[in-house]
Write a structure and sequence with these properties.
12 helices
Length: 300
């Protein structure tokens, strides 16, 4: 008998930490890529490369496609929310000059927003311990990136962009979990990449003239973001969402700024402040409170 994923804790832990590592380091790749192309243009190139990666996989592996027309419609909506809306918003936030610090804090509202939606409309009963963990996690993220926050960076445009991104990633993650629970993730990725290109390419032409400064660093950023993030990390997130509570899974988002701080130290030798270290401890405690689940006694 095949062991359910929820019982294979090592595999779930691997997926969780992979997601955190890639999501936390993705801002560096995005920052590099936006030096060579504006957001809509960069994302169009990113998803075209994603199609080029997924099409051979789908043709060779031939995953079973049992989705109905309604399922296809749900996939399209989820793709527009998760890929086009979320990433366009977050990329434009950085492109308009907002630091990674304040962007991370604003996007880290997602677990709290997910918890409110899940408890109200998805019948997830959250304990007082989990609500405390959600609050601690958000407070910890603020402390982690406190030294980078400068509200003077915010403009109406950047504020709207980060709100669009937050709403897109929250709605897209929950929407796919509710309406596309059994769709093959390989087919889902291909369909959603096509949808994202259809949505973003016209904007790239009309708004940005599709100007690109072709360079190897941009290709490297695209490869990392497509293979590491859009394909593997997003599928890891959706897999975890299928087998776990939405709030517990999305609380992992709190850990991504911590990984970014560690990466900054490892690559650029940027030493975290004492407040950041305290924030790391508070965030980890918050995530532990949300994610901790009492082990069920083994059946005899």
């Amino acid at each position: 008998m095949t062991t359910p994923l929820s019982e294979r804790r090592w595999f779930a832990s691997f997926l969780a930490w992979y997601f955190v590592a890639i999501w936390g380091s993705g801002f560096l790749a995005t920052k590099i890529g936006l030096q060579y192309a504006a957001p809509f243009t960069f994302l169009t190139l990113r998803f075209l490369f994603g199609i080029a990666c997924m099409l051979p996989i789908v043709l060779i592996m031939r995953p079973r496609w049992s989705a109905t027309r309604a399922d296809l419609g749900h996939l399209i909506v989820a793709g527009l929310l998760m890929h086009a809306m979320h990433l366009a918003g977050s990329h434009y936030t950085q492109y308009l000059g907002v630091s990674a610090g304040i962007t991370a804090v604003l996007l880290s509202v997602q677990p709290l927003l997910t918890a409110l939606i899940a408890s109200r409309w998805m019948s997830e009963q959250l304990s007082a311990r989990q609500w405390l963990g959600i609050t601690l996690g958000l407070a910890g993220v603020v402390l982690v990136v406190w030294h980078k926050i400068d509200v003077r960076e915010m403009t109406i445009g950047s504020l709207l962009a980060v709100i669009v991104s937050l709403l897109g990633v929250t709605a897209g993650t929950l929407y796919q979990r509710v309406f596309c629970p059994l769709v093959d993730l390989r087919m889902a990725a291909l369909v959603q990449f096509v949808v994202a290109v259809v949505a973003l390419a016209p904007l790239a032409w009309l708004i940005e003239d599709f100007k690109v400064n072709w360079a190897w660093p941009m290709f490297g950023a695209i490869a990392f973001l497509v293979i590491g993030a859009s394909i593997l990390a997003v599928n890891a997130l959706h897999t975890l969402m299928r087998y776990g509570e939405a709030t517990r899974v999305t609380s992992l988002i709190y850990l991504t700024p911590i990984f970014a701080v560690v990466l900054e130290f490892a690559i650029f030798k940027v030493v975290p402040t004492a407040v950041s270290v305290i924030g790391i401890a508070v965030t980890c405690a918050g995530v532990a409170l949300v994610a901790w689940k009492r082990r069920q006694p083994a059946r005899r």
